[in-house]
Amino acid sequence: MTMNKPYYLTTPIYYVNDKPHIGHAYTTLACDFLARFKRLDGFDVMFLTGTDEHGQKVQEAANKAGTDPRSFTDSVSQNFRDLLGVMNFSNDAFIRTTEERHYRSTQTLWSRLEERGHIRLDKYAGWYSVRDEAFFTETELVDGKAPTGAPVEWVEEPSYFFNLSHWQQPLLEYYQQNPDFIAPEGRKKEVISFVSSGLRDLSVSRTTFDWGIPVPKDSAHVMYVWLDALTNYITALDWHEGAEAFEKYWPADLHMVGKDILRFHAVYWPAFLMAAELPLPKRVFAHGWWTNEGEKISKSLGNVIDPLKLVEEYGLDQTRYFLMREVPFGRDGDFVRDQMIQRINSDLANDIGNLAQRTLSLVFKNLDGVIPAFPKKLQTADAALIEAADGLLDAVRAEMDKQAFHEALRLVWEVIAKANRYIDQTAPWALKKTDPARMAEVLAVLLETIRQVAILIQPIMPVSAARLLDQLLIEEGARDFAVIGGAGRIASGQTIARPEGVFPRFMDEKGEEH
Ligand code: MSP
């Protein structure tokens, strides 16, 4: 048996101060798309997500809800687990920072840092933003607020410090030697310039509240929530117990994060790991933020986008497709309802939906539903389409590996457009009387193209792709990338059922089409 190559990817773990919104769904969706792709491509995937449950922000949210943080986090963490089902996410594990093993893991990491002389006790005096869970100096403030616009409060307390400043040069060297470590390129430049401008030692414990992991041998302190949170990526592999999973999956292939939390992942986390003498992750990708019809999304504006509502209104696979296709991954994007409807009707209902429905209907009506043989000799037009389909996987894989998800999808839709031009040019419906043998060939070429497209869109639209593959009578065991191209080819002789449209046009709540 061949051993599949491991691939470990992670989402950030989400703060449980609030219910899930589009930002959470977006980050996890990007990972889900990639995880499903990698599995079909023969990798042994470990896809991790979870919840970040400590810190002042969560403690305050619990107080506000009139309950203690533990029961509060138990109930809100569940909302995040419910989202996984709603969005059809295929994560292999879900971690909570309130798990007992995470306490042991984080305390082990702390002790390693301390033993190596990278942590010292001192006093912190400066600003703290609870919303960002981050420290700021006076000079970093903008109009008396954090650069993110979040309010800050003055904090003065005994605190342990991590010697972050010591890691400035090693970090810069690491970025230089590993040019793919931070992406996109523009964000990498920001990180490098931030680190180049000098790093201050980082306060890594707090004493003015207690909702966190106690510092070993000094329980007056709880650990800074970001040290606690980042450690989740290795807790999930039970590194502190020397588990096999850690050997196998660490270092992570990819930490997916939003642009707002890149610094924590590309500066603090690698510094902690270097200091603890543990291997560094291979890549951190920072994606952009969504706005809603041009407006910044915020609770106070009341324009928060609820992923559950999107799925309800537009459909699950439709929502997944739109979020990954609409905006070049890495850039900010604007959620515009008309654009969503446009994508549903044009890319999905027209382009792929009609292609499949037209082809399958012709097979059903003109060939008694019997799948025709794939031609031994291809005509020029056939060969052009099949070559394009056969070349897709390599091209799509290259984009997926760069996290250019929109581009990966665009490439697939290019082949769909080619197939639509092919069907218009060859007009198989007109061949029934004049040249039925040629009609059968054309339909076989189309079925083969649809087979490959359907296999390739499984990671983004698992339910719709499965329905298409079912209609094509492709067995469950013949749906991975090993059978893409000439290795697969549509099998002839079986009889399909009456085809059913897989990609409906968008209907509004009055039942009207758009
Ligand atoms: N708990 C930390 C992460 C710790 S990871 C060790 C955290 N949690 S969060 O719940 O606030 O944010 C999670 C993710 O949601 C971030 O990647 C963030 O970028 C993303 N988004 C929040 N709002 C967003 C949009 N409006 N658009 C896109 N993503 C956004 O940070």
Provide keyphrases for this structure.
single chain, 514 residues, alpha/beta, Isoleucyl-tRNA Synthetase, Domain 1, four-stranded antiparallel β-sheet, binds 5'-O-[(L-methionyl)-sulphamoyl]adenosine
Protein described:
It is a single chain. The protein is an alpha/beta fold and 514 residues long. It has a domain at 337-483: Isoleucyl-tRNA Synthetase, Domain 1 (Orthogonal Bundle), CATH 1.10.730. Helices cover 47% and strands 15% of the residues. The protein has helices spanning 22-40, 56-64, 69-86, 100-115, 168-177, 185-196, 225-230, 232-235, 244-249, 262-275, 307-314, 316-325, 337-366, 380-401, 405-426, 428-434, 436-456, 462-471; strands at residues 6-15, 44-52, 93-96, 119-129, 134-136, 153-162, 182-183, 202-203, 205-206, 214-215, 218-223, 254-258, 284-287, 290-292, 295-296, 333-335. The strands form four sheets. It has a six-stranded parallel sheet with strand order 3-2-1-12-13-7, sandwiched between helices. Strands 5-4-6-8 form a four-stranded antiparallel sheet, with helices on one face. A hairpin with a 4-residue loop joins strand 4 (119-129) and strand 5. Helix 2 (56-64) packs across helix 3 (69-86), helix 11 (307-314) packs across helix 12 and helix 13 (337-366) packs across helix 15. The longest helix has 30 residues, at 337-366. It starts with 5 loop residues before the first strand and ends in a 43-residue tail after the last helix. The mean pLDDT is 96. Residues 12-15, 23-24, 26-27, 52, 229-230, 232, 257-258, 260-261, 289-290, 297 line the site of 5'-O-[(L-methionyl)-sulphamoyl]adenosine (MSP). Residues 12-15, 23-24, 26-27, 52, 229-230, 232, 257-258, 260-261, 289-290, 297 line the site of 5'-O-[(L-methionyl)-sulphamoyl]adenosine.
